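question for whoever is on the cluster today: can someone run the full assembly for these? two chains, 1004 residues total. i dont have access anymore since they changed the login thing
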Amino acid sequence: MRKLSFLCSILLLTPALSFAGYHQDQFPQPYQAQLIQDFEKLLALPNDLTQPENQKQNAQEIIRLFKQRGIQAQLLLPENDHIPPVVFAEWKVPGATKTLLFYAHYDGVTPNPEKWTVTQPYHPVLLSHSIENGGKPVTAEQQYNPDWRLYARSAADDKAGVMAILGAISALKATSTLPAVNLKFIIEGEEETGSDYLEQVLKANHDLVKSDDWIIIDGGVHASGRKALIFGARGDMYMDLTVYGAKHPLHSGEYSSFAPNPAMRLAKLISSMQDDKGHVLIKGFYAGVEPLGKQELAAIAETPNVDRQLKAQLGFAREETTGKTLAEDNNQPSLIIRGINSGAVGNAAVNLIPSTASASIEMRLVKGNDWQKMADNLMQHIRQQGYVVLDHDPTDTERARYPFIAKITMGTGSYNAERIPVDSPFAKWVIKAVKSASKQPVVIQPTDGGSLPLVAIRNATGAQSMSIGFVNYDNDQHAENENVRLGNFFDGIDTILAIMKR
Amino acid sequence: MRKLSFLCSILLLTPALSFAGYHQDQFPQPYQAQLIQDFEKLLALPNDLTQPENQKQNAQEIIRLFKQRGIQAQLLLPENDHIPPVVFAEWKVPGATKTLLFYAHYDGVTPNPEKWTVTQPYHPVLLSHSIENGGKPVTAEQQYNPDWRLYARSAADDKAGVMAILGAISALKATSTLPAVNLKFIIEGEEETGSDYLEQVLKANHDLVKSDDWIIIDGGVHASGRKALIFGARGDMYMDLTVYGAKHPLHSGEYSSFAPNPAMRLAKLISSMQDDKGHVLIKGFYAGVEPLGKQELAAIAETPNVDRQLKAQLGFAREETTGKTLAEDNNQPSLIIRGINSGAVGNAAVNLIPSTASASIEMRLVKGNDWQKMADNLMQHIRQQGYVVLDHDPTDTERARYPFIAKITMGTGSYNAERIPVDSPFAKWVIKAVKSASKQPVVIQPTDGGSLPLVAIRNATGAQSMSIGFVNYDNDQHAENENVRLGNFFDGIDTILAIMKR
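^ ran it for u. tokens below:
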């Protein structure tokens, strides 16, 4: 299927080329070269979500790439001019009655450059395979190969999505083919921070962005290698938790038999939130979850069980799960400790009792969870452990009064989950289109493990949305050495084309 | 007493000065000026224990300060020339039969400059009071005041000790007074890392350093403000603990209902080591502790209970203790989490499940504890929580085999505790000498909460040792804004003089 899929891409991009004697490892180089070159140029633009000025350059470059393909594009600016703009583009098709909006995002998670091994986050490099499989740098003179991997921040999440949309447009333009529907495009720059301003921008440009349905191009194939059609995404809730010892770090000898150690206290507090098997112990955590329908349960039952393979690949012997399989568990909320910090470790450690200990806490939420209620439940849990919960560092009076003090700072970017039925007309239409372009079965996922601002889209436009995952699942998005496998990238273009042309 | 003590210092340093009409807030400036100037110059030399080259400059400066006072001094070099040298000095007294060795150290804990508020660690500054009490910078033109504080790394721990010894020598020289005993001096540069090479250097220079007894000048007064005579110090044990999740950080949405989170695992593992009241749950932790004698128990009973005052000052409402008072608890071993780290917190946090979580673990040990046995007990405890304990990062095979993996890396600088009976002849002699110079009662501590390389001293030289604490107890040693109160500093000189002259 992968071979055919590539063939299809090339055929569309290079109609004059003969494919007699085509082999998977011999792609006619020049025809994908321009697209990969554009991709690398976009990846070279830093898109760190904490650097809005840099992100704006990404938006400008994407405008240029749309215009280069003959598509009108413009920036939609949030009221706050420090916020990265939204790229909007449109391809009106004479006679078409339906309008489909494709969404992707250009912002990327802040990288930790020290941990990248083959290259730096904004210096894209092509390897012959994944790093784990001994990939070596390859040069543009060589023929592209589906197993090649492009390494850079956002190579997968989600400049792969941006470039796959642009690649599909190129393919249509190259063959002078018109889409079957009107196309609109939204490429935003704030997805990784929770799309706080997206709803505002969409509302402010209501008529411009009006569409029947949205298709999100963001995410990976199922770990079985099958294309994933995803009809919901989990919501997200963030908070920072700090607990306190003495006002200042204390000599670890003089006070260790006396002063409370906040690192120990944080450990106990966090431990109280989850059992050894991964079941969350916060009261009400699983309450209110909207049950899956018959069709959704059937889709999960049909999803290949890749848990054993995943454990081997990810490097752990025992999963922590509340249900039976990862596919099933993604339809339950989860609690994530994104980080803990107190004092110092390793060579940086000194003989001190730390004065504070902090944790970054996230929850992934499913349909039926309200993020504010979930945050309240967690605060109530902390109180039940004997803590007073403050929203500020304790005063001297509070220190003297309360034996256990926790500070909670709510994060930004929290939102609820969204899901459409897999047997809704829009879902059935997309499934049919994608299946027509795929020889292998596709995986139907009621809920993705990750989060997307589907609620903001529905609130602002009333449109339904779903998402398509096509990048390799081992893309290490958000982490060091993020990458996209070229075979998956071109396959994604095929999938988008199938939908655009249906 | 503090007033008299200051008067005494000045009297010795300036025999020609009349003290009629003397007031505590009007010190004749020039007479302490030189000593404080020398002190500030020494504090301006970086002495970060991780920078041996910088530390050597401290040793050279201390040699100069001894020679300036007419005392012969030399460097004793460890075999490893990256290790800071030991300063040795000697004052032979005609006719004296007993030899007393005074010990201090010039190395300091690595500072965290970002956290210092009034000055930088190696830019000493004099304030009119403590920062907490609204201290403002004072100039050398003003009269010294006992409440003034000198802020810099090692202002208390332990360049105050070094300078108090040098101040006492100045006082004797200024009055042409001979000590009653032969004096030797050891100022080492490796105390904060566990004095790993001290024993070797002492053995290599056995005849040179030979003395009847050692007096350690390092540490603070009791929190009641009374001078502390301390006849033992706790031992120390260090290890780093790391637990593992997946091989790489994972997307927190895609894998949070599946992959183990090492931050949560570390929290559970650490939590299992101690109960909510501070009692350590590691099997054998309190076994083997050598019981205190009748005299030691009596000394503890006489120690003022400052726990309530300390809690108010340090800023917490409930102590964590295994016994009744801090004074009593310092005679029990303690477990310290010096730091925990996994992923990132606050604004640096990203939507990832961390791949590892680490803790820096310390134990303060008492007489009867063997540090290696205590480390073994902790490793056994970790195994009892279901972990395999490795001394290396897990291989793929180990990851696939063991559901719970911990790596233990033993730290350097671990050693056992030491204590001499408070009714031994040496102890009784020191107590008498110091009491003769103090109008207030002194506190007799069987064991200090902190650690000193007393075992290395006994192993290498056979000498007994005790220590005297005179710096203000709120000196923030090891932490940011370390400081010494000048009143305490000059009082320390008096105490040393009383011993030297007895």
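summary bc i know u wont read the tokens: Chain A has a mean pLDDT of 90. The CA atoms of residues 168 and 493 of chain A lie 5 Å apart.
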